[in-house]
Design brief:
The complex is a heterodimer. By secondary structure, chain A is an alpha+beta fold. Chain A contains 15 helices and 21 strands. In chain B, helix 12 packs antiparallel against helix 13. The chains are: A alpha+beta, B mainly alpha. At the A-B interface, strand 8, strand 10, helix 6 and helix 12 of A face helix 2, helix 3, helix 5, helix 7 and helix 12 of B.
Chain lengths: 539, 345
Amino acid sequence: MSQEFFKLERRTFLTGLLASAAIPLGLMPGRLYAQEPKAGGVLTTPAWPAPSVLNSAISTAGPESFIGPKFFDGLLGYDFGLVPKPSLATEWSMSEDGTRVTFKLREGVKWHDGEPFTSKDVAFTFMEVLKALHGRGKSTFAGLTAVETPDDHTAIFVMERPNPAMMRALDSRESPILPAHLYEGTDIIANPANTRPVGTGPFKMAEYEIGSYLVLTKNEEYWDTGFPLLDRIVIQFVPDAATRAAMLESGQAGAIFLNMIPAQDILRLADSPEFEMDTRGFEAMPSAQQMDFNLDNPILADVRVRHAIAHAIDTEWITKNVWYGLGHAGKSPLHVDQKEYYTTDGVPEYPYDLERANALLDEAGHPRGDGGWRFKLTLDPSPWGTESISASAYIREQLRQIGIDCTVRSQDSAVFTTTVWTDRKHDLVLYTVNLGTDPTIGTQRFYWSKSFSPGIAFSNGAHYSNPEVDELLEASQVETDPEKRREQFKKFQQIVMTDLPVMPITNISGANIANVKVKDHTPDALGALGSFSRLWIDE
Amino acid sequence: MTDQASPVPLRGKKTGPSWVPSMAVQRYILRRIVQAILVMLLVMVGSFILIKLAPGDIVDTLAGTSEMSAERMAELRQRYQLDQPVLVQLFYYMMRLMSLDFGYSPFNNAPVLDVIAKRWPVTAILVVCSVTISMAVGTVLGVLSARNAGKPVDLGISVLMLVFYATPSFIIAILLILVFSVKLNLMPIAGFATIGSGYTGLQYFRDVAWHLAMPITALCTFYIAIYGRIGRAAMLEVLKLDYIRTARGKGLSERRVIYVHALRNAMLALVTMVGLQVSALVGGAVLIETVFGLNGMGRTAFDAVFQRDTNLLLGVVFVSSLGVVIVNFIIDLLYMVLDPRVEIK
């Protein structure tokens, strides 16, 4: 049993006790409240794309992740550094063997429709919704066999085996608690509550015009007394990025979150004293740009070819020019924000070196033929955002320099996912993806042989299969000793960067850009993916 | 569609516009309705087959943005009948359509009719306002420049028309935003009305007008140029005709000659343009809707194609083509009013 893990638990257990009563402002870290927060006001923020549903329990898409946590709470919250803190659960403890986690639930919490929140809601949400319908929950909670509810304010998670990753997946975005009284016994996917959310969160639904805008109003009976501070949030769905930037610039919007305008606009506006950029609050969604090699292609099955390609691509250049410096060049399958496990110690690097790349290709038996070409490859950039498309133009030119006749295929999203993950007609595929708060949740799927599943987007598209890696990944799923787990992920990073089935390009640093009057949108690790309950407007 | 009632001069016989539909008109209307139904059926089946020809379906789109298990994807495909052969899907769709059931939009999680009900008024207002304004302004400019043909006024108007004609509407849109919203901070940039304002009546009307002023301006410029040029050419043509000389000879005021005698005749060419503009705008407003964050029919169709949301796309196609068919029908009737020589075949 993990001692350190448990210590962490106990520390938060104490804060939990304090926070279970109303949180007096005086106890909040001083830095965050240099000014006295003022209640009232309206935040207008443009967003795109528009959501399909309004909770993040049945869809893990970006808009749902942004909007859902304003309506719903999770069992836990996370402070910077992903340190668990109380939310709907006020205390939690783990059994010695790590297979039972007991949560004490907050009392007196009410759903927006006035019904009391109980352990029944927790049991229902995890067993019937997150385990069954959530994209990542299915694997995160795979070993969860039951949620016992001895009384209304106790929920005991019973697991087949220890599940350390789970403790990082209990926030309002990853695992929002849904009201059992509205969902139980219904067709969950088609439930009208999916677009008329009833949560326990700081904001309630006021007005929703599908695809156009969403108005949220203050939940006056929020359990966190004194919060939220805002009266209303207006989220307007605006498809054009230049228009979104103009809204912020003209003062018609207060902030734009989660990189919903291009990096160059964020940096341009950040230069003005009127606006402030904040790169904190992205730990809950560490995003990376990476490129899969289809190992079913006999040319790419040769590790020397993959190394050659890695040497030909200057990831620093891409980070600086495509991401405008808002990120770090990728050096590991993990994200630098996965601080506990990220390492470059003993992990091979592939510095930019065209000579070396050419030599490796010669060695692999691909001499230059007619017109100086060695062989042909196609590169499929993902159509979401512009960065993969821009980077693919650079990669194509780089590969051409080492004699690889590379063609870029630009496709719409349905064609893209079908080509790559269903039909597997790709050679190289460049995309951005969320690596997860824990490697088991978000990173493992690209490398575990068991997650090779044609038809599923963002699965093991490389068709990578290494028994040693499988063993490490499977061991880390149940390892509760942090030291041992760190060691497992270190070995994992070393092996995977040697085999290189996936080439890390950039660890993206997310950015929010807000008018200086908009304060405290990022009080903890969830940032804009959190509740905005502490956000206030200085007017 | 406007060729159904082309101007046919009937020598020796003049029939005035009749406001009571004669048997011929009734037969004509009936024929037009049957034609419209056939045209719309064709458009619907065509769109259905086109979107099905594109690789991927809506479940692929959903799975591209939200992680999904294989079972969930299979379950969704079954739910939306995407596991059936395309022709079977088409058959089911057409059967439902018979009872005016447009189905469900999986992406928006709402019935197609609910989605469209909120969106068609946006496009309708944009189209009606921009057609009216561009036609009025274009006609006035066209007449002005025809009356002053060759003079500096004509030259000035011609240059302006050329600029309007050559500048894409979305560039005008972006310029308007930069000048009137970002620099001067006068105009709202995005949306149909102030969200959550609770305005009613005149206040609401003013709010909507304020929000749509820039999009409508951006949609108008190109068509002002078109109407202006057509108007100018048509006026110059008509002013040469004998009946104008007769009118002048009778001693009528120049104003009366121009606006009553000549313009009415020149209007025929302009009215033809209205039909084309309406058809182009219903789908073509997508750029302006995108720039100004307006959720109209163009934007909805655009997104539906990319999301492979077949039901929603077909719903939009149905409503839009219905609108276009109705407008063109009205225009054909207008010909009869403008030119009594036009007779129904």
